[in-house]
């Protein structure tokens, strides 16, 4: 294919980094090479015989390439590969391991909104959306992708430092019998049992219960 | 987890099976250099199988993994071997349960699922036994994803 003799060290640590199925190929520059290294990228669907070049990631000097669009069908699995070029020589193609968007993605924490009465707080949780090509494209919640998705919710009484944990499947939770005029802080995490996927906990959302009437 | 397969229901410890597979996935898949061939998902994806055929093809696939895959996947790594046998035991009990239900409920094998399973066997027989078994084991997540997606 007219390739040059390839004596350049290889790109290193070629892997997919995926969050909410935004699937980005990352790698590290070949050892000992300074500036000026260019790269090209190709990818393949597992089980299908041909590599497909990614034109937008041809002759690039950055060390990442967004392949979300090419790997958006999470019923398939993928490989990707990177080759480096410098001063007329090149490296070998360096491949990822097999990438399964469904099990190899990370999930962001849920969005948390809270409201309160004098003796209770109401919590509404929203799972993140799957990556999509454009804002106009229809949104797909990760709840649709992972039917077994659950929420772990932590509620902290800021005064007594007492903390409760709840594990719920639906996205609303009302915590009753609280103290009036007290600040409670809520944080939530997404938990998918199988395939096993846990988000981090969201940042805390604090709210005060209303004072006694 | 309980799977509803037509008239049949089968419970499987998916969390354990998934955890076992995740622990050995990189090791097993690295032994399969053939990127351009899939046993389970090409040319036709499992996801195209009709709901009515799920019971039959699931039983076929359990039998396939028990009889043709797990026993041919011994490695030099005892950790990997232990994980494989744990997964195999889960499949063995699931196949037994599904087999009993299948006899009672005559879970129908439609033309499509019969054709699909023939394709899987053809893909398998196109390789030598060890390579075919290792590739099939490396594709276990394809089977688990399909089972869970259409629970």
From TrEMBL, chain B:
The keyword Cell membrane does not apply. GO terms for molecular function: cytokine activity. GO terms for cellular component: extracellular space. SUPFAM superfamilies: 4-helical cytokines. Belongs to the IL-10 family. This is Interleukin family protein. Keywords: Cytokine, Disulfide bond, Secreted, Signal. Immune regulatory cytokine. It is found in: Secreted. Disulfide bonds join 8-101, 55-107, 56-109. Its main location: secreted. It comes from the Eukaryota.
């Amino acid at each position: 294919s007219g390739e040059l003799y390839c004596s350049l060290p290889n790109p290193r640590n070629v892997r997919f980094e995926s969050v909410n199925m935004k699937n980005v190929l990352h790698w590290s520059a070949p050892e000992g090479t300074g500036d000026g290294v260019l790269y090209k990228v190709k990818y393949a669907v597992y089980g299908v015989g041909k590599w497909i070049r990614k034109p937008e990631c041809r002759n690039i000097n950055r060390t990442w390439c967004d392949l979300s669009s090419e790997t958006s069908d999470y019923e398939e699995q993928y490989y990707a590969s990177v080759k480096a070029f410098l001063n007329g020589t090149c490296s070998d193609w360096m491949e990822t391991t097999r990438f399964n968007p469904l099990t190899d993605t990370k999930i962001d924490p849920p969005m948390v909104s809270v409201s309160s009465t004098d003796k209770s707080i109401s919590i509404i949780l929203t799972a993140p959306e799957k990556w999509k090509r454009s804002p106009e494209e229809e949104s797909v919640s990760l709840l649709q992708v992972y039917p077994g998705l659950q929420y772990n919710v932590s509620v902290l009484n800021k005064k007594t430092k007492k903390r409760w944990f709840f594990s719920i499947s639906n996205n609303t939770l009302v915590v009753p019998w609280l103290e009036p005029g007290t600040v409670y802080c809520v944080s939530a995490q997404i938990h998918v049992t199988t395939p096993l996927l846990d988000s981090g906990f969201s940042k805390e959302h604090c709210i005060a219960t209303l004072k006694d009437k | 987890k309980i799977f509803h397969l037509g008239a049949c229901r089968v419970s499987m410890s998916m969390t354990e099976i998934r955890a076992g597979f995740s622990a050995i996935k990189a090791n097993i898949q690295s032994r399969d250099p053939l990127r351009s061939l899939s046993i389970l998902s090409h040319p036709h994806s499992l996801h195209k199988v009709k709901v009515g055929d799920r019971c039959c093809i699931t039983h076929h696939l359990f039998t396939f993994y028990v009889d043709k895959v797990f026993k041919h996947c011994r490695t030099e790594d005892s950790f990997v071997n232990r994980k494989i046998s744990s997964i195999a035991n889960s499949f063995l009990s699931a196949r037994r349960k599904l087999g009993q239900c299948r006899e009672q409920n005559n879970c129908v094998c439609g033309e499509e699922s019969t054709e699909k399973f023939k394709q899987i066997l053809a893909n398998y027989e196109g390789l030598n036994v060890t390579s075919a078994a290792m590739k099939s084991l490396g594709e276990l997540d394809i089977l688990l994803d399909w089972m869970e997606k259409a629970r």
